[in-house]
Specification:
Number of strands: 24
Bound molecules: zinc ion
Number of helices: 0
Strand content: 35-45%
Distance between the termini: 70 Å
Radius of gyration: 21 Å
CATH class of the largest domain: Mainly Beta
Order of helices and strands: EEEEEEEEEEEEEEEEEEEEEEEE
Helix content: under 10%
Length: 275
């Protein structure tokens, strides 16, 4: 016999992918179901083309969970898992629960940046391109290892490193310097083979040249630079994120670039030339 299922309260915390935007919202769903034994099953469904890490916690009344909580799991790309089973602890007693979860894009367990990788500049330019903001920049990169390149609207953006495209947003035409525009940034996210995520943001409306699920190599043209999202001038924001449960959805990593004959980290606000 099926037991009725009540949710006293269900609330959700979603980690956004930093202040740039990049919502994981909509890619993960936690759905309660009941089975023929009267158990409540919490099914986690990941619709992203890359893994999602989840911390699930519940308060359970008149029921017993099959594992200790909080439960932390990594759900593979485009898949679903039974995250929790809750059995009624008395005959015919409905299970009451409230649940909440935190998610972050990527696999928090199997990711560690490969520091020997040399990144390519995400553009080709004969003229020197200014760095508008480098690591730990005052404007929006405080405690972030992120780079803002001064690229004109419509400049081809190239992949800095090979990987699999797991997220493409290109439907935004809007941008402004205010926080209210943070969610309007067009963005491409590439999953690298060490589990880190390369993020290319503020891209031009409708300019993506790749699609979700596509494997790309370093130097591959992926989109055009733009001025969407929280942005006060056309530029490209680039960073590499190590998936972790932080309030920034991960830890941004300093990466070395091929700069002419040199391999170096980009620092300061000098301009740089592509090789
Ligand atoms: Zn930036």
């Amino acid at each position: 016999m099926k037991h009725p299922l009540y949710f006293r309260l269900a609330w959700i915390f979603l980690i956004l992918l930093s202040t740039i935007e990049g919502k994981t919202q909509g890619f993960f769903m936690l759905t309660p179901e009941t089975d023929s034994l009267g158990r409540v099953l919490l099914i986690g469904k990941n619709k992203l083309a890359g893994p999602i890490s989840v911390i699930l916690n519940c308060n359970i009344y008149d029921g017993i969970a099959n594992k200790s909580l909080p439960d932390t799991e990594v759900i593979a790309a485009n898949s679903e898992v039974r995250m929790l089973e809750i059995s009624p602890d008395k005959e015919k007693t409905p299970v009451w629960l409230d649940f909440r979860y935190v998610i972050t894009m990527g696999d928090y367990l199997n990711s560690a940046h490969n520091d020997s990788v040399i990144y390519l500049l995400p553009f080709k330019s004969r003229k020197c391109v200014r760095i508008l903001q480098s690591y730990n920049g005052d404007l929006s990169h405080k405690e972030q290892n992120a780079l803002d390149f001064d690229l004109n609207l419509g400049t081809p953006v190239l992949a800095s490193r090979s990987g699999k495209v797991i997220y493409v947003k290109q439907d935004s035409k809007n941008g402004c310097p205010d926080q209210k525009c943070a969610g309007m940034a067009n963005m491409i996210i590439v999953l690298h083979n060490d589990g880190t995520l390369g993020r290319y943001a503020h891209l031009k409306f409708g300019s993506a040249l790749i699609s979700v699920g596509q494997e790309i190599t370093a130097g591959f043209p992926i989109a055009q630079s733009g001025n969407t999202g929280q942005s006060n001038r056309p530029h490209l924001h680039f960073d590499v994120l190590l998936p972790r449960f932080t309030n920034q959805a991960g830890v941004t990593i300093a990466t070395s670039f091929q700069l002419g004959n040199q391999v170096a980290y980009i620092s300061g606000l000098n301009c740089i030339k592509s090789p």
